[in-house]
Design a protein that fits this description.
The complex is a heterodimer. Chain A is mainly alpha-helical. Chain A contains 5 helices and no strands. The radius of gyration of chain B is 20 Å and the shape is elongated. The chains are: A mainly alpha, B alpha/beta. The interface of A and B includes residues 45, 65, 84, 86 and 87 of A.
């Protein structure tokens, strides 16, 4: 039995995804900020990966930048601005809230609103029809 | 009212088709550069052939120039190189090079064997200057006006048709503006 459990455990292991070969930062807070920041920036070479996950040379360069700037005492906001100044908003995985992204952010809510309007109109009309001529308008009426 | 109920979804469908149709032909690897319309970042690089051929911001003053980011390990650069050599022979624009994350010996050898289109060629083995230029793939080519302002950026290799139909007209336009 133990043998099967051991086998099962081997099968469900995942490979260690260690791309980042940078040495650890001097303290845990900085290391935490480093992890958070590198997971927010897009690698422009392999665009669906963050710079924390990517093997590309550019991602390594950008990780070095983040690391060095953190050690130099830059704030998260300053590091973000550094990236955006060079690579544009596209470098951010989470797009900022600004005029050219309003539609992007508000789009889902807008669509939901339109859907809700349609539902409300249809339901109202049906219920009005049902009131005016009961039994005829509602074809789905399954009462005996 | 009935007509509207029919036309509205049909209209939305048409809009979505147009949107996605356009999306099919967009190239996501061409990220617009935020540096367009801004001055070149401050930089100073030694030349590929040695410190004498150094390249810095002052080289871009007074005339339209292009800055081509290249490397010997970059495969598309091989196709681009002969086109740059031809462009250099036409004498329409000053061509500068930025050798990116390369080693000096291979770069010098490449220029000797393939021809050297560059008036000056900066050597950036660690890609530190290129980082400030927002370079993320090679080859990339910046078009810089006579005041050192970046006006355009081509991502990917320049081809003969791209040079004759887009690059050269743009250079002429920038020259007109600065006169």
């Amino acid at each position: 039995m133990m043998r099967y459990i051991a086998l099962l455990m081997l099968l469900i292991t995942v490979p260690a995804l260690a791309v980042d070969s940078e040495p650890a930062l001097p303290n845990a807070t900085l290391q935490q900020r480093y992890e958070t920041l590198t997971h927010q920036f897009r690698c422009l070479v392999c665009q669906n990966e963050t710079i924390a996950e990517s093997n590309a040379g550019l991602a390594a360069d950008l990780r070095t930048q983040v690391r060095e700037q953190l050690i130099a005492g830059k704030s998260d906001e300053q590091i973000k601005q550094y990236m955006v100044a060079r690579y544009g908003d596209f470098v951010l995985f989470k797009p900022p809230w600004q005029p050219n992204t309003w539609l992007l952010w508000a789009g889902p809510l807008l669509l939901l609103g339109i859907g809700a309007l349609v539902v409300i109109t249809v339901v109202r009309r049906k219920s009005q029809l049902a009131k005016s001529s009961p039994g005829e308008a509602d074809g789905d009426d399954l009462r005996p | 009212m009935k007509a509207l109920l029919f036309l509205l979804p049909a209209g939305i469908l048409v809009l979505l088709i147009l949107l996605f149709w356009r999306g099919l032909y967009l190239n996501p690897s061409q990220v617009p550069s935020p540096l367009i319309g801004k001055p070149l970042p401050q930089f100073s690089l030694p030349g590929v052939g040695g410190p004498s051929a150094s390249l810095n911001n002052a080289d871009f003053e007074g005339h339209v120039s292009i800055l081509n980011v290249w490397a010997t390990w970059c495969i598309p650069c091989r196709d681009e190189q002969p086109e740059l050599v031809k462009l250099a022979q036409q004498n329409v624009v000053t061509i500068y090079g930025l050798n990116y994350k390369d080693d000096a010996d291979s770069a010098v050898q490449w220029l000797q064997s393939q021809g050297n289109p560059y008036a000056k060629d900066g050597f950036d083995p660690k890609g530190e200057v290129a980082l400030n230029f927002g370079v993320y793939g090679v080859p990339e080519t910046f078009v810089v006006d006579s005041h050192g302002i970046i006006r355009h950026k081509y991502i990917g290799p320049l081809t003969a048709s791209l040079i004759s139909t887009q690059l050269i007209p743009l250079v002429h336009k920038l020259e007109q503006v600065s006169k």
